Amino acid sequence: MRHMSDELAGNLSGGQKKLLELGRTMMVDPKVVVLDEVGAGVNRSLLREVGDAILSMNRDRGYTFCMIEHDMDFISRLCSPVVVMAEGKILAQGSAEEIKSNEDVIEAYLGTGLKNKGEVLQG
Question: What is the reported pTM?
């Protein structure tokens, strides 16, 4: 984002603002960073850059990130383990692939209506 260093924050795109927020957070040298809905409103290419920055800070500087996120592609790339919570309790935890196929997670986030619809279509 060096090419935008003279730009006002209000003129940045949603994804650029997320990168700016991440940079500002890192200025205080945190040990743990909690990120809420990082992918919300961010285009895929800029989200890839955000992901690259997170991976780099984790690998190179030892920062720990805890993310609240619904974009499972983004989570799959960055997180291990993945912990799913529902109604304030841990519902499941494991690899991203395990979470994607977990019946309790599917039920909690997609509901039985979708599950039953698939059964009707297959039967």
Answer: 0.72
Confidence label for 102 from pLDDT (cuts 50, 70 and 90): very high
Q: Which CATH superfamily is domain 1-79 in?
A: P-loop containing nucleotide triphosphate hydrolases (3.40.50.300)
Q: Is residue 67 left, alpha or beta, with left meaning phi > 0 and alpha meaning psi from -120 to 50?
A: beta
Question: Which residue intervals of the chain bear CATH 3.40.50.300?
Answer: 1-79
- Cα→Cα distances 97→55, 72, 81, 111, Å: 19, 10, 10, 19
The amino acid present at 43, given as its one-letter code, is N
How far, in whole angstroms, is CA 76 from its chain's centroid?
9
CA atoms of 69 and 35, how far apart (whole Å): 8
What CA–CA distance (Å, rounded) separates 15 from 49? 9
Helices first, then strands: H and E counts in the chain: 5, 4
Average pLDDT over residues 77-103: 92
Predicted confidence (pLDDT) at residue 115 exceeds the cutoff of 90: no
